[in-house]
Amino acid sequence: MNLRDLTERLGGRFASEGDATPFSYGDVAGEVSAARSSVVVVDRSPRGKLLFKGDTCVSFLHGMLTNTVEGMSEGKGNHTSLTDAKGSTQADAWLYHCGDCLVMETEPGLQEKVSAFLDKYVIADDVEIADWTEDCTILGVQGPKSGEILATLIGKDPGLGALEHTEVNIGDTDVRLVNRSYAGSAGYDLWVSGSAEGLFQLLVIEGAVPAGTEALETLRVESGIPRYGLDVDERVAPLEGGMADAVDFTKGCFIGQEVLAKMNNIGQPRRYLVGFDLGNADLPESDTEFAVGGKAVGLSKSGVRSEAMGRTVCLGSVRRGFEAPGTKLQGPDGLVAKVVDLPFVS
Questions:
Q1: What radius of gyration, in Å, describes the C-alpha atoms of the chain?
Q2: What is the mean pLDDT of residues 112-121?
Q3: % of the chain at pLDDT higher than 90
Q4: Minimal CB count within 10 Å: which of 23, 217, 265, 308?
Q5: Buried b / exposed e across 297-307, counting CB within 10 Å, b at 16+?
Q6: Where are any strands of DSSP class E within 2-145?
Q7: Which CATH code, of 3.40.50.12780, 3.30.1360.120, 3.30.930.10, 3.40.190.10, is assigned to 1-268?
Q8: Does this model's pTM top 0.85?
Q9: Phi and psi at residue 124, to the nearest 5°
């Protein structure tokens, strides 16, 4: 459900007429600061959403995804991924067990690829896959005071562990409340079937600062959280893209399991996701090559000019052997990147 009319009235600025969500409300630095010290609310409606039903959907997804499904009970969730036979990452996702169905969240637009990939393997299984993206709104509530503001609205502490979720009522709105952090501190997602205008306004009244996608990206990069399509793609395995939490090596077979298990057992991914400290340099384009001794060993990924650090930083993908903190890599036109541990800002 599009919240553009509301967010525009609240001062939202949009990069183009077709954008559903604002990149800023006029003060990116202020929005980042609010997320680090208090609480912000973000419209995440463009996130891809798939709904799974059917008698065998649990066992089917358990055999397709890299993380457990059969071992997940109602009210639980996990980070997972899809890999091909070579162990290459086709998508990453967050899966939630809602009792009579399973719900998946993906990057915007990626739900179509995931649905098509899975549908090829639905043969004798009783599995229904529905695109729920346009029918459901997600509001992100992020920051150290996110639990406090939600406790006020629901009348009790949310009491949820990471990726746990439950149904609550806020005002006149039924909400699935998910403990989901992606901005470097505590955070929640509020899933609403239908419009969430009233809920967004209520959160603002209670003190949440509206934040745009630019602030959210700054927080994500500073927190060292990879994003599919920007930092991870089909060229790397989950273990090579900082997504080890998306793989359960005890669950049994899935597509690509043998390759990933071997990579994990010998402890030798081909590449590693690291941080690049670029000092005061301009941010390089994504996939800019970096070298050691004239040999290309790394690529820049998504980055920001970090006000918190006073430096330019980006995520980077480097070959095995060049991931140690302190390693210096040479980029074009004298650009130097120093490898550092993630997160940049904790």
A1: 20
A2: 97
A3: 96
A4: 265
A5: bbbbbbbbbbe
A6: 40-43, 48-53, 77-83, 89-97, 102-106, 128-131, 136-142
A7: 3.30.1360.120
A8: yes
A9: -100, 0
